[in-house]
Design a protein that fits this description.
Layout lengths: L1 H19 L2 H14 L1 H27 L3 H13 L3 H9 L4 H10 L6 H20 L2 H31 L6 H58 L15 H11 L1
Helix pairs in contact: 2-9, 3-8, 3-9, 4-5, 4-9, 5-6, 6-7, 6-9, 7-9, 8-9
């Protein structure tokens, strides 16, 4: 399914690139922007701002995401073999958010279940703003684009009726129709901007919810795993130097 969506997106991008290189399309676009007046350029600037935010959010969310099932299975395997240090090292090799949360819990593997849970919850609160960062701007861009489009249309209609009031009676209808047609350009561009940004916002919101859902789910599972596994000779068993593995890992991290 995802492959089909990617293929369709690639085909759409190719078609758009072909159309953009067509001289007649460029000329029509220039006329369209010119007829709409200054509000067209305001909407275009807002749309560009929204696209820039969307691109940044896509890159960030992709870097924050990870295969949660595989990571959790690997961590579980290391914990069950009393090799917490290796689990911490595996989590340290990724910049995603889930490994960061799991790592904070693993560092307290020698402590109580409540302390492990507190560490994970604190890290979740720390990473949550990274996922939600600038997402509100996308909704704002969509709403403002629509409103400025309507404002541009109203302004264009006012100018059209003012021009028709002093025109020759024989040409009033023609001038009025032409003025209304030009005034609608701002509404059209505003809606195009709003719709595209809203679609991107919806996709990014779903992605961020998926990331945070996995972070919370596997965070709870890690607390349960470490709490269940704790016992003599198990998680928290002595590592080289006489320290429990979790304490040794925490000491190494503080020293770094």
């Amino acid at each position: 399914m995802e492959e089909q969506v990617v293929n369709k997106a690639a085909e759409a991008a190719t078609a758009a690139a072909t159309a953009a290189n067509d001289p007649s399309f460029i000329k029509s676009l220039a006329v369209f922007m010119d007829e709409g007046g200054v509000f067209m350029w305001i909407i275009l600037a807002i749309w560009t701002f929204g696209i820039a935010i969307a691109v940044e959010r896509v890159k960030s969310l992709l870097s924050y995401d990870v295969d949660g099932v595989s990571l959790m299975n690997m961590v579980k395997k290391n914990v069950m073999t009393n090799d917490v240090q290796k689990a911490i090292q595996n989590c340290s090799n990724s910049k995603a958010l889930l490994p960061m949360v799991l790592k904070s819990g693993l560092k307290r593997a020698n402590q109580t279940k409540e302390q492990i849970s507190d560490a994970i919850e604190a890290t979740i609160l720390e990473v949550s703003p990274k996922v939600e960062k600038r997402m509100g701007y996308l909704g704002l861009v969509a709403n403002v684009s629509t409103l400025i489009g309507l404002l541009g249309t109203i302004y264009g209609l006012i100018e059209s009726f003012a021009a028709v009031a002093t025109a020759d009676p024989a040409s009033k209808a023609k001038l009025l129709a032409l003025g209304i047609s030009k005034a609608m350009n701002t509404t059209a561009l505003g809606l195009i901007s709003a719709i595209s940004i809203m679609v991107v916002h919806s996709i990014l919101t779903s992605k961020s919810e998926k990331i945070m859902g996995e972070v919370e789910e596997y965070g709870v599972k890690l607390v349960d795993l470490l709490g269940t596994k704790k016992g003599p000779g198990q998680v928290g068993s002595s590592a080289p130097g006489g320290l429990p593995q979790g304490a040794a890992a925490q000491k190494e991290d503080n020293a770094a």
